[in-house]
Amino acid sequence: AGDPQGPVGVPDSSVPQDWEQRQEEDTLLIERILLLVRNVLHVPPEPAEEQQGVDGDASVHDRVLWALHISGMDDLLKFLASAQVEQQWALHVLEIISLMFRDQSPEELAALGQGTAGAEHGEDTRELESLRQRELAEKRARALQRPSRHSRFGGSYVLQGLKSIGERDVVFHKGLHNV
């Protein structure tokens, strides 16, 4: 009942195959598919053919990348790149990814990654700056409205011409109106 082989020794297609138990043919098939994707992406662009389209038109390379995305191949490549048990395909996947980004400059990629995030960050920064300015203005207004507290200590005064016990001038620690 649990035998994946049919009665004559032919594999039964109704029993799902465990991919950890791959046969040599499956491994070769995966490698051939990865090499095919690499070879398709490796085709250099033809400038004459690229200029025939409208300026905003996607290049052939971009259309191939879009087809890979629609087919789900990009998700499979991400899986192969991140799965620990699929390390044998790491260099193939790395080469495919580098070919995917071959026409892009690092500045363009960084700007795309920050597209909405960069705009939102700038908006957040402006909003925070306006809140900070408003808070400082309120703080200044409160400082002007608050009556200044009077210190009980009015200062020290030296009364010249009036001698103390030690033949020095008198030092007075209260306001002069009580003298």
Automatic annotation (TrEMBL):
Principal location listed in the UniProt entry: nucleus
UniProt keyword list: Cell cycle, Nucleus
Boundaries of every Timeless N-terminal domain copy: 17-158
Residues covered by region (Disordered): 1-22
One GO process term, biological-process aspect: replication fork arrest
Compartments where located: Nucleus
An example Gene Ontology molecular-function term: DNA binding
Cellular component GO terms, alphabetical: replication fork protection complex
Name of this chain's protein: TIM protein
Originating organism: Chaetops frenatus (Rufous rock-jumper)
Lineage: Eukaryota, Metazoa, Chordata, Craniata, Vertebrata
